[in-house]
Amino acid sequence: MTYIGSGKLQEAKEICENAEIDVVICDGELSPTQQRCLEKVLKTRVIDRTVLILDIFAKNARSGEGKLQVELAQLKYSLPRLSGQGTALSRLGGGIGTRGPGETKLESDKRHIRRRIHSLEESLSELSKRRERHRERRKKDGVVTAAIVGYTNAGKSTLLNTLTNANVLAENKLFATLDPTARAIRLPDGSEVMLIDTVGFISRLPHFLVEAFKSTLEEATNADILLILSDASDSECEEQLKVTKDILKELSSEEKPMITVYNKCDIANSYLLPVTRNTVKISALTGVGIDSLLECISQNMPSTKKRVLLLIPFTMGSLSNEIRNTSRILREEYKADGVFFDAVVDVSKMHKLIDYIVKEDDICQDT
Cα–Cα–Cα angle for 193, 277, 142, nearest 5°? Predict the structure, then answer.
């Protein structure tokens, strides 16, 4: 009933009385009954781990979508706990335009919260559809995306700033980033990739929080490459990596190319860290290892270009112009039946060109 044993409870009570504690935080999820009992004994406000996370989220949410997600999570958390709020919610009422006859204040509040939850879910659904259209446009244009994911405070925003000069808020605190930010960078081989900064993960993340931030986490689930960032200076570095990978598995993203990035190696014993093919040691703050990271991203890039031989009829002049504008032309010649191209084209455009692909021998025979 009190989450902890009677001995520890008495010890906590003495600490609260002697140190004038304003709030007690429990590293776990409290039931409404446990919270009431603890507050009665300790005579101070008691919150659990989930409320603390939600308070941090609420403080750091900046975009409209982020604020909606936080509000939705708060309401889903508070809804089953309304019944534990005592006599303040027990009065009856009725009348036109208010509560129905005999409806309790508790029932009325629950009804209003459910209505607000439904409204928030609809708004977030619309934003999710808009984000999906943006992703479809990027795929159509052949844009490769790499999501920076990892435990909270691992340095994801600092890495994005180092690579792109994005000026994203990067602070030494939990969940400084709640809203995804995307910036393009050019790799050493000349190709481009869109980097996306995402919300940080944390162990024992409540399921309803994952659901509330699903539209944000979709950026990770739909990325072509995942950069899994971990704080190498933290004694629980490997445990944080495991938490991140477990959440990615829950989001069905574990099949994507993954690059493990050990950050803050300038203040860690980096020689103790494992070395594998897709492992990079960096310092996002000082820039050490960034070149190796970019090279590793290049090696994991999906194939988005393809060299083809095309014979485009003269009647398809607009398609010929599109090829010239969007492809790398290696050779272009005018033939009897149309314009011949030896070109490197985006894979995303192959559906337009499939009917016009030819072999070199066919072109030679025609001439």
Answer: 20
Query: What 3-state DSSP class applies to 175?
Result: coil
pLDDT tens for each residue of 144-186: 889 898 888 888 888 988 988 766 555 554 554 556 678 888 8
Return contacts of 49-52, CB within 8 angstroms, 24+ apart.
49/25, 49/204, 50/77, 50/206, 50/209, 51/77, 52/25
| 305-366 under CATH 3.30.70, yes or no | yes
What is the DSSP code string of 25-50?
EESSPPPHHHHHHHHHHH-SEEEEHH
CA distance 142 to 192: 10
Element (H or E) spanning 230, and its range?
strand 225-231
Rounded to two decimals, the pTM is: 0.66
Q: Are 133 and 228 in contact (CB under 8 A)?
A: no
Per-residue pLDDT tens over the stretch 287-340: 999 999 999 998 898 877 778 999 999 999 999 999 998 888 889 999 999 999
- Cβ–Cβ < 8 Å for 210, 241: no
Tens digits of per-residue pLDDT, 243-269? 888 888 877 666 788 999 999 988 887
Residue 258 to residue 284: CA distance in whole angstroms: 18
Given the DSSP bridges, would you call strands 45-48 and 23-26 parallel, antiparallel or unpaired? parallel
Is it the case that residue 89 has pLDDT exceeding 70?
no
Distance, CA of 232 to CA of 101 (rounded, Å): 61
Q: Which fold has domain 143-299?
A: Rossmann fold (3.40.50)
Burial classification of residue 219, based on how many CB atoms lie within 10 Å of its CB (0-12 exposed, 13-18 middle, 19 or more buried): buried
Contacts of residue 150, Cβ cutoff 8 Å, sequence gap at least 6: 156, 200, 201, 227, 228, 229, 230, 240, 244, 261
Could you give the CA distance from residue 39 to residue 1 in angstroms, rounded to a whole number?
12
